[in-house]
Design goal:
By secondary structure, the protein is an all-alpha fold. Helix content is 64%, strand content 0%. It is globular and about 35 Å long.
C-alpha cells in the first residue's frame, strides 16, 4: 500500500469585504451620478468641496480627512438624499485605515467621485 502526498489546495486571494463593499458603492454612485439618476444635495457638494480642499496638497483621500468631512455633514448627511454619499465615504474609512485593505482603483474612483460632486451642478 502506498501513501500519496496530499497536495494543498491552490490559494485564492479573496478581497476583504470592506474593500469590495467600498468599490461597489463608489462604482454604483459614480454610475448613477453620470446617468443623472442621483444628484448631490448642497450639503454633499459642500462636503465634497471640503475633501477637494483637504487633498489639494497631495491629492489623496485619507481616513482622517473623510472623518472630518463626515463630521461636518453630521446626521443630516446620512438622512438626506438617501445618505448614499455618506455611506460611500463611511465605507472608505476602514479601507483607507488598513494598508492591506487599500485598493488603488477604489481610492482613484472615490477621488473622481468627490471631484465630480464638488464640481458645478449639472
Amino acid at each position: 500500500m502506498s501513501i500519496t502526498a496530499v497536495q494543498p489546495a491552490p490559494t485564492l486571494f479573496l478581497e476583504p469585504v470592506a474593500t469590495d463593499r467600498a468599490r461597489h458603492r463608489v462604482q454604483e454612485l459614480v454610475a448613477d451620478l453620470r446617468a443623472g439618476v442621483w444628484f448631490p444635495t448642497p450639503l454633499e457638494r459642500r462636503v465634497a468641496d471640503m475633501l477637494i480642499t483637504a487633498t489639494a496638497a497631495d491629492g489623496m483621500l485619507t481616513a482622517g480627512r473623510i472623518r472630518a468631512a463626515l463630521w461636518e455633514g453630521s446626521l443630516t448627511m446620512i438622512e438626506d438624499n438617501g445618505g448614499r454619499f455618506a455611506h460611500v465615504l463611511g465605507d472608505l474609512v476602514p479601507v483607507l485605515d488598513e494598508p492591506e485593505l487599500t485598493a488603488l482603483d477604489v481610492v482613484d474612483a472615490a477621488g473622481e467621485l468627490v471631484a465630480a460632486i464638488a464640481g458645478p451642478p449639472a
